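Page 42, continued from yesterday. The earlier attempt failed because a stray header line got pasted into the input along with the sequence. Redoing it now with the clean sequence only.
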Amino acid sequence: MYAIVEIAGQQFKVSKDLKVYVHRLSNEEGSKVSFDKVLLVDDNGNVTLGAPAIEGASVEAKVLQHLKGDKVIVFKKKRRKGYKKRNGHRQYLTQIVIEGITGAGAKKAATKKAAAEATTEEVEAPKKKVAKAKKEDTQE
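This time it went through. Structure tokens are written below.
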């Protein structure tokens, strides 16, 4: 079972007991975190898509530690001009471990039926005919 979840503005494919580095979260180390913006859940071939998120689904995680990532060097140079700039930064990260993924349950089936009914209503609705503009004879 895996899920695609949005955490701190980025999307991650997560499964149970997976350790993930995400942008810094405000929670303390050792605390539990719940992410409600689950975009997709795959339960052994049974795929559920959200529009945009699945209602009732969540991903439970535990904050392991706060740390800084590797240094990223930004080097700018223009040849034959004597222009060189060297800059770098280290991103603040949080390491989390995924403890569980909960699906939507009964709401998931209801939303599929509602979506199927909505699409059949749209198909059965008559289409309006648009009148084409007539060309006027301007040549005399």
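Notes: The first strand starts at residue 2 and ends at 7.
Reminder to self: strip header lines before submitting.
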